[in-house]
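The passage that follows is intended for readers who have already worked through the single-chain material. We present the inputs for a multi-component assembly, then the predicted structure in tokenized form, and finally a short commentary. You are encouraged to pause after the input and sketch how you expect the pieces to fit together before reading on.
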Amino acid sequence: MSLDIFSQYLINCLMLGMIYAMVAVGFTLFFGVLDIIQFSHGDVLMVGGFTALVTYAGAQALGVANPWLQLALMVLIATALTAGLGVLVARYLVLPLKNAPPLNTLLITLMMGMVLREGVRLAYPNGSNPQPFPRLLPGGVWSVGGFEARIDSTILLLVGLALITGLHLLITRSKLGLAIRAVAQDGETARIMGINFNWIVLLTFGIGSGMAALGGVMNGLYYTEINFGVGLLLGVIGFAAAILGGLGNLYGAILGGFLFAALQTVGAVVLPMLSQHIPSSYKDVFAFAVVIALIAWRPTGLIAEKSTERA
Amino acid sequence: MKHRFTGYLATSLLALTVALPVQAKDTVKIAYVGPLSGGNSALGIGGRNATDLAVKLANENPTSKYSYELVVVDDECKPNIGVQVVTKIATDRSIIGSVSNYCSAVAMATLDIYKKFNLPMIVWGAVLPDITYAQKISEIHRVNGTMIQPNMVAAEFMVKQGYKTWAILHDTTDYGKGHNRYFSEYLQKNGGKILGTFGVTADQQDFTAELTKVKELNPDVVYFGGLTPIGIRIRAQMEKLGIKAQFQGTSGIKSDSYIESLGKELAEGTLSLTEGVALERLPRGAAFSEAYAKHGYDQPFEAYGPFAFAAANLIIDAIEKVGPNRRKVNEELGKTKDADTVIGKVSFDDHGQNIIPLVTKYVVQDGKWVVWEDSEYGAGKRKLKGL
Amino acid sequence: MRVPLTSRPVLLFVVAALVTWALAWALLGAETQLEVLALFCVTVAVAVVAAKMKLDAPVAAAASSHPRALGIACVVGVLALAVVFHEDHFPLLLLCSVLLYITACLGLNIQFGYVGIVNFAGAAFFGIGSYTAAMLAGHTGLPHVLVLLLGGAMASLISCVLLLPVLRTRGHYAALVTIAFATLFRSFLEVNDALGGPQGMRIPALNLFGWDLGADHEWGELFISFYDNYVLFALALAVLAFVLVRRLERSWMGVAMDAVRTDEISAKVYGISIARQKIVAFMFGNLLVGIAGATYGMMTGYVAPNNFTFADSLILVSMLLLGGLGNPWGIVPAAALILILPEKLQFIQEYRFLLYGVVIILILLFRSQGLLPRGIRRYFPNREAARG
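Having made your guess, compare it with the prediction:
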């Protein structure tokens, strides 16, 4: 395998891992504060992407032509609106079910995901088909000694990295982060210490959903296309990545995301090379089989939770 | 309590019948079966709209003997749901014919139900050869071709253009797998070489791993057996990875959405070999496009809409001729020979399969699907990639 | 000491049963938009009236103090539906599907509700049952009773692969194991051609000891749909599964399973083998799911990978949760609602899943514990009933 092909695989895999990680981070955040799974998270990402698309159309109509300005508008509006959507989901669907079995939260958010998905499909013009996403990043290629990468992919990778680092700093260094961690560790005690529990939960859902919106924009910019079903698979894989890494742990979510991307790439590329009888379509079978094996080996995720009493 | 409830239902039904305006014509129902939700919904909704158009046009026509009503059911592209909804329409004796099935697995699962209840149906989109040829069921007809003919022509045509090596991508549904099978078979007969075959799942979003492998193999042509949504993703990601090969698809990508979503430049030069005659070349085809636009459907009719339209028209014509009786309509449909429809002449063989004489080669030129022979590519003014 | 048969709760119970039956009848039979709309309004009205007059608690008390009466009422109700709809294939097909999904959910209920294993691969095990039935009934001459049992056994056997990870993990981590399996199973069916590939394969109709369930009956004027055969068989299967599951719940094993779910450490202290309870629950549950799947496959006559996606597993889980986790009675209305509602919404075509999602969300917001949440275990049901 020549270096340029190898670099290609590497960039693909990193990019895919980055998007998975951004979804997984949301799952892990929500689980942290409320011990619940927000199953419509993938669809929230899709809504973020479509919001950006509508913003772009609006910007075009208003005569804003500078691609960077357009991009800034898209990111701002998509993040804000999607964060708002996340807050609404938390306020009206998740918090009312706080005293029900945690699986019921899963069911209600699952249904919410379906409502979002079908809603976008039916409300967006010709929404059953994929929609073109504008190419706003410079498209050239840079190379160092045979190692090639596209400029837009590189920008997206760096931005993704910066976002996840920023989120990490927010959680570990800021006062807000401290409050989130306090709620995550023990909601009751946090309340006694004067932390407004509901506010922190809503804020966390806002932050996580905002991240998903950014993931949606990145996804759109990278693939130059977005469709109503994008959240379905991303949701399942993001959830798998969050758990594989260890729920409630940011590093775990990131690790899980990249690991999953690596498994899929290996399944699609390396396995068919090893044997003629394994076509590349077995890649999902392979990736999920390895996930089962890994979880059997590390039952509380690769980066284990401190307390294993969570269920 | 129970009695009161039944009574209520009965009175409300009575009220409904009384409230209905007295109609001069008898109402005849026909059904439509296709996917209206989930990943295949774009094509399903297109087919539904086209069928709806056929019914509306028949109702607008003052010479129609009956007024028609369309019963639409969503099979979600799932065989078990298909069995449910087809049982529902087949047991409703007021439904005389059905424009049925886009998904082959659903068609296969429901064949026996049409047979059991003598409901004449015309397949408008499912392409698996077995639907008509695995057994002989008189109720089953199909206006679209199977996937054998276009692939036979495609393999020969492409080799003749001078292409030598292929990479094949296909989705792992019956549609993609079937296309892969027949294209590979005919390609090898014609001396083309397949460097690699990649199955992808229908809901897959990222194809860069497979495509990077394709880039490494460096084929002349990338063949894709699958539908528009994945086709768009694959073509866009090919560009991203800098794959210079010619892109060749099947009937599944021949839709306006393909060009709209990719943009003119990316779609330029994409080939699609489809069964049937080119709509633009037929007088009734142009009329269909016009009527579709006039009725203001908010989604395009997609690749198989014209077939659904033709199927609905055949059923309506048969009902006009022999009256709303399933057996008679079925007999009438079986006799269909050289019927003039939107997709050209339709003749059913003894298995109910339309013997389509033609396969149409399309190429994207300046943001439009153009018939190969009419295009600048066909005339030699423009060149396909790598030639 | 039982509640006397002429008391107010019992009368209420009888009225409630009749109303429920009428609603079930209307739900199965409603076809047009107007009928469905009327039914919807009546259902809401009944629910509101019952809540306003505080009728639900005495009815529930009467029902739970006479579980046998409730069971008999259900069986009689289903049989009455089978008689009323004897000519109509479609409502009977829906009824059968509901019964078979109830059977499958009863299996999952042991896992989710009693021992506390989450299983998101229900449709995969359902599918293993169907596919085993397709292979055996299509290619061998085995008697079909055996085929159904082997369908269940196969589901149970294949689930052994997951035993190690399932035993080692808990909660959401176990969910991941089964989600991975569900996704993997569907992909595998689709890419592997030996089992029919993506287009699936046919299964012959069920034939038990010469009783061909796939044949209609006609005696002179009287026509009886072949789905009535399946209704009888599926009803028998569901009742058998129900009785088994209830017996299990009431047995010491059920107590042990509850202990494992609520607190593993205390359970261990009391000498309960956690692994054993989990293995029994997981394998027995999947056995039931597999048998239901095999019967369902033979009824619909066709198996294909698209029937057994992860989304279908979620449908099974939805039934359990909507019914109220751990209460087998809850499964009955939930399965009926989740299977029949989207079907009755066909007239709104592509908008139906949007509305369906909204309806389920609203139900959950009003009844966050599910329709019929599981009550506290009663060790001496009769005594409790007498007291209150």
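Commentary: The first helix of chain C runs from residue 8 to 29. Residues 90-327 of chain C form one domain. How closely did your sketch match?
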